[in-house]
Amino acid sequence: MNNSWPELKFSEWQDTCATLHMWTQIVGKIHLVQTPLVNHWWNVPLYVSARGLTTSAMPYRDGRVFEIEFDF
Fold first, then answer.
1. Residue 31 CB neighbours (<10 A)
2. Is residue 45 part of a domain?
3. What does the pLDDT read at residue 69?
4. How does DSSP assign the chain, residue by residue?
5. What is the extent of the structural domain holding 30?
6. For residue range 14-57, what is the model confidence (pLDDT) as tens digits?
């Protein structure tokens, strides 16, 4: 049984990494605006989900909530 991970050359996915980084920053800013501030910015993490990353539920108008998920 081979437990080694395949080689992942950064140069081959560098553009994808930069794009994903920008999108997660945008979603983080939305989360920051929509949730009450908690020490050390603990209110704005992205959580690992079964599909990828998620913000968890965020409050919106009229008692509604919404969530943003990156489906990988």
1. 19
2. yes
3. 97
4. ---PPPP--HHHHHHHHHHHHHHHHHHHHHHHHHS---GGGTTSPPEE-SSEEE---EE-GGG-EE--EEE-
5. 17-71
6. 999 999 999 999 999 999 999 999 998 898 999 999 999 999 99
Torsion of CA 49, 53, 59, 60, to 10 degrees: -120
How many domains are there within the chain? 1
Residue 4 lies in a domain: no
Rounded CA gap, 6 and 70, in Å? 24
Q: For residue 47, is it within any domain?
A: yes
pTM of the model: 0.80
Residues 43/32, Cβ–Cβ less than 8 Å:
yes
Does the structure show a pLDDT above 80 at 1? Answer: no
Residue 1 lies in a domain: no
